[in-house]
Amino acid sequence: MTQRAERGAERGAEPEILFERRGAAGLVTLNRPKALNALSLAMIAALHAALDAWERDAAVTRVVIRAAGGRAFCAGGDIRRVYDQCRAGQDEAVRAFWSSEYRLNAAVKRYPKPVVSLIEGIVMGGGVGISLHGSHRVASGNYGFAMPEVGIGFFPDVGMTYALPRLPGRAGTYLALTGSRIGIGDALALGLATHHVAPQDIEAVIAALAEGGPVDDVLAAHAAPPPAPGPLAAARGLVDGAFAADSVLAVLAALDRAAAGSSIANSTFAAETAALIRTRSPTSVAIAHEQMRRGVGLDVAQALALEYRLALRVTASHDFFEGVRAVLVDKDGTPAWSPATPEAVDPAAIAAFFAPLDGPEPDFGPAMGRDPRP
């Protein structure tokens, strides 16, 4: 247990994150199950410090990240806290959160040792940021992946500008614009998950990893039979065609045409997908579409720098306050987006979100002290 965790225990408080040296493994446990293990700034800082220490420790040959509770690996960053800070005008605190989280994402991506995430339950937002950039993502139990930020007036961040456009076909654009949740079958097919184990085997996997054997051999020895691909795999032809369109309106038009077509399976999927996008923040969907277009040509550091700009501007926007209010505060599920429809979105307003900041911007590149991984 880290010194920070011990202090929390002495106060009678349950620590938010736990660290343990177990044999060859540095073991991390996200420990906010009541908050679906959402990442606070303190958790982000503590995890980054632990990664730095274990990188220098030759006895630690791999890092393993798991979560308490079973319902969620991590549902994201503590967006309600960010919302409250924005409302209170605590700009420095907001900047510190995004800078720290994105630096952690960059550190995971560049980490020279295997980072094995054991993912039970939902993994969204910030949880994706600390797992997807690592070397091994092990799906288990009721795993569900989503980047649902367009539903709260935000955008898919934590390096998704880099990662999602590199998924097969246009699956990443689909995930970014819809915020849809997918299961193990689709995640394995897309490479979002690299392995699958049964929940009852998680402790055995941790024990075997602690013994120091090759990570791939350990995971192969405990592999569960792969589930069948999910509905996204079945609709890949439609997704790859519709989401290749060069604007949100063109994506919706392609989905509407497919919804009116003769294929029952495709028409149902297309109609439901178009309807879902139309419930999301039109501004957020337009930002996400532009992210996917730009992200193909960016490395991770450049993508995170772009997302930092977006985060500061989007969290000062109407749709962010309205989306968080509707989903997380009042929980009435009826956000009043402005503009209210994709047709009313001004392309110039979207471009302005992506412009460089007036002042200095954080560096998320190799200057952090590690060489980028291929």
- How much of the polypeptide forms β-strand, as a percent range? 5-15%
Sheet with most strands: 7 strands, mixed
Structural class: alpha/beta
Q: Give the total of beta strands.
A: 7
The low-confidence parts are 1-11, 368-374
Helical content (DSSP H or I, runs of 4+): 40-55%
Mean pLDDT: 94
Q: Tell the overall outline.
A: globular
Describe the structure.
The protein is of the alpha/beta class. The chain is built from 18 helices and seven strands. Strands 1, 2, 3, 4, 5, 6 and 7 form a seven-stranded mixed beta sheet that branches. β2, α2 and β3 form a beta-alpha-beta unit. α2 runs parallel beside α4, α7 (171-178) runs antiparallel to α15 (282-295) and α15 packs across α18. It is globular, with a radius of gyration of 20 Å. Mean pLDDT is 94; it is low at 1-11 and 368-374.
Ordered list of secondary-structure elements with their pairings:
Elements: H1 3-10, E1 17-22, E2 25-30, H2 41-56, E3 62-67, E4 72-74, H3 79-87, H4 91-110, E5 115-124, H5 126-131, E6 136-146, H6 160-163, H7 171-178, H8 184-190, E7 195-196, H9 202-211, H10 215-221, H11 231-234, H12 236-242, H13 248-259, H14 264-277, H15 282-295, H16 300-314, H17 318-329, H18 347-353
Helix pairs in contact: 2-4, 3-17, 4-16, 7-15, 13-14, 15-18
